[in-house]
Design a protein that fits this description.
about 20% strand; binds ligand LARABZUK; alpha/beta; 10 strands; about 220 residues; PRAI_dom; Aldolase_TIM; two-stranded antiparallel sheet; TIM Barrel
């Protein structure tokens, strides 16, 4: 059994948050971006403390993020815009020494990606997240070219994202197996899912997520 973390992103409705939280995913994401149909407002019901509540922001003012971190007690902050490494440093320092929130920096990828872009962020953020570049800032429901990750040059662990659904379990397994051969499987830290598990934007299918979670990381022969 592999230790692949699961992040479910784009939660919106209290009852649905509780249904998905009952599966104990490792991360639950709440989007603060008005241009998204998954834009979150309101309250997050009490959920198991093992789940890292994650605020997702797109080029937001640092004050706005701090306000949400304080209000919702976020354990992780996902930066889904064009935030610079300097911005990430400022955010870390603004959070203060007593706040250990993880910072996840997103990069949008399609057919090619210049991994040199990651260099300024090394040691500044906790994780990278690779998502698909599309017409929306996130939640495009399409996969990018994962072959690119076979040459992943960084030592910062990453989340794999973009159009991941039940059909991608085997493909994930194959990427993991490839990285394992290169002693790099620990770098594939987690899988981020969203629109492929939705009944409508922001409303997740808990049964389908359970199925995915049960299959993720099983030692399937590839
Ligand atoms: O999902 C959104 O609407 C969204 C909007 C703006 C910024 C980020 C957004 N989603 C963040 C995520 O982490 C998604 O899980 C990621 O984009 C993958 O989505 P999908 O391709 O639907 O699996």
């Amino acid at each position: 059994m592999k230790d692949l973390k699961l992040k479910v992103c784009g939660m919106k409705h209290s009852e649905n948050i509780l249904a998905v939280a009952a599966l104990i995913p490792d991360y639950l994401g709440f989007i603060f971006y008005e241009g998204s149909p998954r834009n979150f407002s309101g309250e997050i019901p009490e959920i198991d403390t093992a789940i890292k509540k994650t605020g997702v922001f797109v080029d937001a003012e640092i004050e706005f993020i701090l306000d949400k971190v304080k209000k919702y007690n976020f354990n992780a902050i996902q930066l889904h815009g064009k935030e610079s490494a300097e911005y990430c440093k400022e955010l870390r320092s603004a959070l203060g020494q007593n706040n250990s929130a993880e910072i996840i920096k997103v990069f949008s990828v399609k057919e090619s990606f210049d991994f040199e872009e990651l260099i300024p962020y090394e040691g500044v953020v906790n994780f990278f997240l690779f998502d698909t570049k599309g017409k929306n800032k996130g939640g495009n429901g399409i996969a990018f070219n994962w072959e690119l990750l076979k040459d992943y040059p960084s030592s910062t662990p990453f989340f794999l994202s973009g159009g991941i659904g039940l059909d991608e379990v085997l493909k994930i397994e194959k990427l993991y197996a490839y990285l394992e051969k290169k002693n790099k499987s620990k770098l594939l830290f987690g899988i981020d899912v969203n629109s492929k598990f939705e009944i409508e934007a922001g409303l997740k299918d808990a049964n389908a997520l359970k199925n995915f979670k049960d299959n993720l990381g099983l030692d399937i022969q590839v």
